[in-house]
Design goal:
The protein has helices at 2-42, 48-52, 65-96, 101-114, 118-132, 139-163, 167-175, 180-208, 212-215, 235-244, 249-279; strands spanning 55-56, 61-62. With 280 residues, it is an all-alpha fold.
Length: 280
């Protein structure tokens, strides 16, 4: 009887491992297929001039310099707004308040926000930031809207990362005479950094690839943004317009290749940075 149970457990373990390898391989093949398709169709137009030149003829020729600047500026500004708010909210929920109605309401609100379609955030940002607050189509309006959209992701991942820090580390800090704030900022948050960075990477990836949200708030201008109140055209919106309007599928494929490469570069760079910090 024990031998039969052991055989069933071994079979279940092997089946689980095999299924894990199968799913991982399928995801890897899907990613390789997407990147390979974009490389095949977008590589012929890729050159240094594509990154450094202004768009010409509605994007049919030239490069994507203002589009690239708009994308980087929009992603960086949205993270500069959402990361401090999200991490501070997670710290408050886990370290400075007891479980109760307030924490339940905050978590419920964050979960509801995470499930709202991006186009609804775009309409909200258009009404509030573009019209009511008079920002017009601008980088600031788009960044504020994106910050509202990615904030729930950062809150939830930061909260789970902080919860995973062993309580013994906190006790060591208190035993050495550290205050609550010192324990949080010098012990808890450094230990939770990998999990928090995971949320930041997810948020950045969503911000860089967002279209419906920013097309209502940032605009579609191909001019170089020189201030936060200037309109712009992020890369995902540029790809959408090129493909949807039939302007140039060749330029659309190359733009998509650069966007995917940028997101992969952010993920790989972040993983390398975290691995280096962990080893040191």
């Amino acid at each position: 009887m024990d031998q039969d149970v052991r055989r069933r457990n071994e079979f279940a373990n092997r089946a689980g491992i095999g299924l894990s390898y199968l799913v991982t391989g399928a995801v890897g093949l899907l990613l390789a297929a997407i990147v390979g398709y974009l490389v095949w169709n977008g590589w012929p137009r890729l050159s240094s001039g594509f990154f450094l030149q202004q768009p010409e003829d509605l994007g049919r020729a030239g490069g994507i310099l203002p589009v690239l600047v708009s994308t980087v500026l929009l992603g960086g500004l949205s993270l500069a707004i959402s990361v401090p708010l999200g991490v501070c909210t997670a710290v408050y929920l886990t370290e400075y308040t007891a479980e109760g109605k307030l924490t339940t309401v905050i978590r419920f609100g964050a979960e509801c926000l995470a499930g709202i379609p991006s186009i609804i955030f775009g309409l909200f940002g258009f009404i509030l930031f573009v019209i009511t607050l008079g920002m017009g189509w601008s980088m600031l309006a788009g960044a504020l809207t994106l910050a509202c959209m990615v904030l729930p992701t950062i809150i939830r991942t930061a909260e789970e990362a902080i919860k995973s820090v062993p309580a013994g580390l906190r006790d060591v800090g208190y035993s050495l005479g550290a205050t609550k704030s010192q324990v949080v900022w010098h012990i808890v948050l450094p230990q939770a950094r990998p999990g928090i960075m995971t949320g930041v990477i997810l948020a950045l990836g969503r911000a860089l690839g967002e279209t419906a949200c920013v097309i209502f708030t940032t605009g579609i201008s191909l001019e170089m943004p020189t201030s936060l109140l200037d309109p712009g055209r992020p890369m995902a919106v540029h790809f959408y317009i090129l493909a949807r309007e039939g302007i140039s599928m060749e330029m659309a494929y190359t733009t998509a290749l650069v966007l995917v490469g940028l997101i992969l570069l952010v993920n790989v760079g972040s993983a390398w940075f975290l691995a280096k910090r962990s080893s040191s």
